[in-house]
Amino acid sequence: MVEEMWDQNSGHGNWNLNFLRDFNDWELGLVGDFLQILRSHKPSGEEDSILWKKGRRGQFRVKEAYNLLVRSDDIGFPSRSIWVTRVPTKVCFFAWEATWGRVLTLDRLQRRGLQLPNRCFLCGCEEESVNHILIHCTVVRVLWDIVFGLVDVKWVFPETVKEVLVSWRGSFVGKERKKIWDAIPLSIFWTVWKKRNRLAFRGGGGGVLNVQKLKNFFVCNLWSWAKLYVGEEAFSLIGFLEWLASP
Asked: What domain of life (predicted)?
């Protein structure tokens, strides 16, 4: 209970928190910010109760909860950009986890208390987070540049995976190519994550990243998915790239 953490006998009252473990060095700033926020709050003295923030008068109502669920688009969750037709289910699940920030990148492992150095396995320059490894890493940008170079598009990248999927549009590619266009972010995410794990757990061939092989893997993976949409013998790899780039 909240009242158990409040010491009324200390002057005007004060927070008396008991933490279960010692803090890591990288957590001290977060704890300080948390304590600073607490200083501006004081328990009211009323009995603790549970409030439903999304309803009137703090009371839970099934109708209001239902309306929140059916209006999921209002909060911008990119369901249609995650559950893309004919994309392997495991890839869609990975994109879903990445959108929620649940992928076990090094920053999340550190928050769980593991003592690990945090450096991106691909670029080796920045700290690894889900948004960095899938969007902002300089190595990963090479894959995005392949796509935008084919269709001659300039795009300012959003900050998060969720924002990328929400804003991913393909009206300019035409109806025929729209399905494979929708699958492109998922293909990039999956390509990057598989390569990241090879470097992290198996050394990836001495720990040396071959960017050209990464690019080849991405293009071939996307090509194999495209065959599911337009037919197995529709075109060669070069033909696929020309088709994707055609106006």
From this structure: Eukaryota
